[in-house]
Amino acid sequence: MRDAPYATELKPYGRALLALAETRPDILCITGDLTRQCEIDLFQDKLPGRFIHAGMAEANMMSMAGALARRGYIPFVHTFGVFATRRPYDQIVNTIAYPNLPVRIVGFMPGVSTPGGPSHQAIDDVAIMRAIPGMTIVDAADAQEIADIVPQIVDVPGPVYLRLKRGEVPVMFDEGHRFSLTRAEVIRDGGDVAILTSGMMLASAVQAADALTEAGISVSLVHVPVIKPLDRETLIRVIGRAKAVVAVENHTTIGGLGSAVAELIADEGLGVRLARVGLADTYAEGSLNAPHLFQKYSLSSQDVTDAAWRVAERAGIAAGGSVPKVRAVPVQAGEYAPV
Questions:
Q1: What was the pLDDT predicted at 52?
Q2: Which alpha helices (DSSP H) does 160-253 contain, by range?
Q3: Element (H, E) at 64
Q4: Dist. CA 241–CA 128, nearest whole Å
């Protein structure tokens, strides 16, 4: 992986979808009145005949996507994550998921990445979509991964929910990195604490892993971009070696990645202590900026480090001493650094 701060790319998803659609005439692009905001103005400009404005009517949009999928198309449906999951849930279940149709639901602005308050913050979208039988859930971390995800999800049987950061997307992985629909990625392999994360929290988890390693803790760091179906084999191996586990997500701690990990630990009888870093059963407030929200709701790199240190102490590691401090990362214009 590259070192922070990270260079950023604009509209990596929009470019990837357009490139794929130019080779796949069965792909349709549907928007819920959020075109530029979901990077699909690029698609609209180049392929207007396969671009559908559904308006601010998300339930109808999902039903429309299901009907088009029945006719042999692969609809990619776009809006903010909260509007892609809460509002049209019944239509997703009955017109897309129950008939197992190949609709790709793309939700932008996950968790507290938007300062827009509870009406716009998708803090429960993973929990909602995990409950739907047959739903694949992908939480992308960086621009390179997004470019690789789009062509890989197009032919997945049944529905897919793709969770994406909006705006300037960091480039964290080295060239040649390959996303896998079936395998979580072990970025570091250690024996004391395993940090499991997904999506835009990967940057914070990397900073926490650095601080813990410098303090003498042996850290495994695992990026879990596919939350459902979970790569049980890799996680069982990593968790089985660890003395403590931390699950980190930009989402409520109820029903998301942390819950999936807790279920796995219980199912397999792994007997390891687990800490969960996420939104603690609360709605976030509105704000002038998103980084403030990550700090206020304990989702920062330091919060991940603190949680890992506490659970390590409970597991008999890191007895005594003070919690290591995360290194501050100076950021230039156009760069991205973890909160």
A1: 98
A2: 202-214, 232-241
A3: helix 58-70
A4: 31
- Quick one: tokens of 193? 């604490």
Please name the residue that has the structure tokens 């931390």. Answer: 246
Model-level pTM? 0.97
Length of the chain counted residue by residue: 339
Q: Does domain 185-315 have CATH number 3.40.50.920?
A: yes
Q: Kindly state the helix (H) or strand (E) to which residue 108 belongs, with its residue range.
A: strand 104-108
DSSP state, residue 268: H
Question: Cα–Cα distance between 224 and 196 in angstroms, integer?
Answer: 7
Residue 131, amino acid? A
What residue spans define the domains of the chain?
11-170, 185-315
Low-confidence ranges of the chain (pLDDT < 70): 319-320
pLDDT tens figures, 165-188: 988 899 999 988 999 999 999 999
CATH for 11-170? Answer: 3.40.50.970
Three-state DSSP class for residue 159: coil
Q: Look-up: residue for tokens 């650094």?
A: 337
Task: Please check whether the two domains, 11-170 and 185-315, share a CATH topology.
Answer: yes
